[in-house]
Amino acid sequence: MTRAPTNLLAVRSLLLAHLDLDPAAARPQDLEPAEVGIVGDADHVGGYHCGSDRVVAGDYSVVESPRDAAGLTLDASALDIGRFSVTSGGDVHDLRSFSAWCVAQCVAGADDTRDIREIIYSPDGTTVRRWDRLGRRSTGDASHLWHTHLSFFRDSTKAGRDQTPLFRRYLTTIGLLKEDDMSAQAESQINSLFNAVFNGGSSMGRRVDPDGPGPSPESNSVVAKLDYTMYRLDAALAQLAILSGKDFTDEPAIVAGVLASLTPEKIAAALPPSLAQQVADEIARRMAA
């Protein structure tokens, strides 16, 4: 059964949190929950709103890109966004301006649009247009006069890649979201880093006790490992300082070793024949005298 993936549900929740200004009432200017869809209804067969159980033979959402073919799962990989109108920063922002902004970001090659395959939208409420990353199509059916469709390459959905950055950037641009607001994924990553630095975990390797036996228990954090490394480095440097003050040269032993190897035979063998003859003649001369 086709399902709504977690990463697109996160986009849906983000948009509703900031564009459904009165969740307690249905208002024409608000983006209502029923206007943000991921999984196609029972009559919807084929396309990015369907998972592997509902695609059709030659489905364009599967066969036109290796990214889609490799990423096909039971997950839908599209998002429909309905009409809304909000005033922020003295300007009115609605579905049409939102759609035009998203298309402009795709055309500009913004990093947070790389997983978007297509956007089907209306810039004026009378004409339907389609931005297609693969350049296959340029329009869509009349239902897109009142809602905008975004397809995401299926491999990005299969990987669970965070798709909120583009939409957070839009909400920040129009002034509905503060720049210092972080996504849940960013907060999770920071929390994981904090835990690794100060608490450690099973993936950090053996536990260490930097200061040796004492009141502080052994730790497995990054800080403890750095402290332990410095502790061992300080000990190694101290040993090196001691060794550098010693004279390791034993001259008498060296001389004795050299003399022990200089036997008469080795000395004679090392002398050139002419020199050996001169030595012999000199010895004979002195003996005769």
Structural write-up:
There is one protein chain. 43% of the residues lie in helices and 10% in strands. It is an alpha+beta fold and 289 residues long. The chain has 3 domains: 6-178, no CATH class; 190-244, no CATH class; 261-288. A 5-stranded antiparallel β-sheet has the order 1-2-7-5-6. Helix 1 packs parallel to helix 6 (164-173).
Mean pLDDT: 85
Radius of gyration from CA coordinates? 39 Å
Distance between the termini: 123 Å
Which descriptor suits the 3D outline? elongated
Q: Structural class, judged by helices and strands?
A: alpha+beta
Total tally of structural domains:
3
Summarize the structure.
This protein has helices at 6-19, 60-63, 66-71, 95-108, 154-158, 164-173, 184-198, 222-244, 251-261, 264-270, 273-288; strands at residues 36-37, 78-81, 85-88, 91-94, 116-121, 129-132, 148-152. With 289 residues, it is an alpha+beta fold.
Question: Key features?
Answer:
single chain, 289 residues, alpha+beta, 3 domains, five-stranded antiparallel sheet, two-stranded antiparallel sheet, 11 helices, elongated
Write the layout of secondary structure elements.
Layout lengths: L5 H14 L16 E2 L22 H4 L2 H6 L6 E4 L3 E4 L2 E4 H14 L7 E6 L7 E4 L15 E5 L1 H5 L5 H10 L10 H15 L23 H23 L6 H11 L2 H7 L2 H16 L1
Antiparallel strand pairs: 1-2, 2-7, 3-4, 5-6, 5-7
